[in-house]
Amino acid sequence: MRGGRLRERMAGLKTPSKSPGKRKNGFGVYYEQILARLFNRFGRYKNHQKLLMLGIDGAGKTSLLRKVKLLEPRTQPTVGFNLESLQYRQQTLVMWDVGGQEKIRSLWHHYFVKSQALIFVVDSSDPSRIPEARKELQKLLHETELKDAKLLVYANKQDVQNCLSVSDLADMLDLSLVEDREWHVQGCSASTGKGVYEGLDWLVEVLKPS
Ligand SMILES: Nc1nc2c(ncn2[C@@H]2O[C@H](COP(=O)(O)OP(=O)(O)OP(=O)(O)O)[C@@H](O)[C@H]2O)c(=O)[nH]1
Ligand SMILES: [Mg+2]
């Protein structure tokens, strides 16, 4: 693989060039894991905060990432990951957005290492999938590698009429039972941008070196 393409892929700037056939048989996903590991070890971002964004498929993770970076929305499901860095309030934030389809959730653990924060994204407009999101969040909160990670929950898609309120969503996710770490739930919309930076404000405050 040529260095240029590797760098572009690591920066999340290009969709992978592997054919869909290869992706389906798992090779593409394996290739993504190697990239993730390489980047974790030799990444060019020094003294940064690693923010790991997870959540079930369709929650709006990629849309949020692209909103934060002021990129055009792109709506295809993520197979593998996207990666973006940004300077925000004197901190370098490196945001990892990992695909949430059920068949690739077993690969999430490859991305846990050295995550200072877990950003868990939930679709507030789809109450039928909250139990599934809660189950995935509970599993993540039991992961040893994530035990020191702060938790930011984005209650996304607040622009959709009749969506769940932030407090109802927090109840449905059992967030009041989370006692082992600092957490915050932030209503937001990746479509309008409302609430997105408020969530990051909370994160940079709790991640500030003391
Ligand atoms: N109305 C509305 N739609 C949104 C919002 N955020 C995302 N969407 C839509 O929800 C769909 C899924 O968004 P994605 O960002 O691809 O979701 P994802 O979490 O990255 O999904 P995976 O990559 O499959 O894990 C897309 O059609 C988006 O346009 C939002 O805040 N409001
Ligand atoms: Mg995505």
TrEMBL record:
Q: Where is the composition biased (Basic and acidic residues)?
A: 1-11
Recorded family membership: Belongs to the small GTPase superfamily. Arf family.
Instruction: Kindly give the CDD domains that the UniProt entry links to this protein.
Output: Arf_Arl
Question: One GO molecular function term?
Answer: GTP binding
Per UniProt, the keywords (alphabetical) are:
ER-Golgi transport, GTP-binding, Lipoprotein, Magnesium, Metal-binding, Myristate, Nucleotide-binding, Transport
SUPFAM superfamilies found in the cross-reference section: P-loop containing nucleoside triphosphate hydrolases
Asked if the keyword Secreted belongs to this entry, the reply reads no
Q: Any signal peptide, and if so, which residues? A: none
Which GO biological process annotations does it have?
establishment of cell polarity; intracellular protein transport; vesicle-mediated transport
Q: Where is this region: Disordered?
A: 1-21
Record-listed Mg(2+) binding positions? 62, 78
Would the keyword Transcription regulation be found if you checked this record's keyword annotation? no
Kindly list the positions annotated as binding GTP. Answer: 55-62, 100, 156-159
The record's annotation in Pfam families points to: Arf
Question: Which cellular components does GO assign to this protein?
Answer: cytoplasm
- Please give the name of this protein: Uncharacterized protein
Q: Which organism is it from?
A: Physcomitrium patens (Spreading-leaved earth moss)
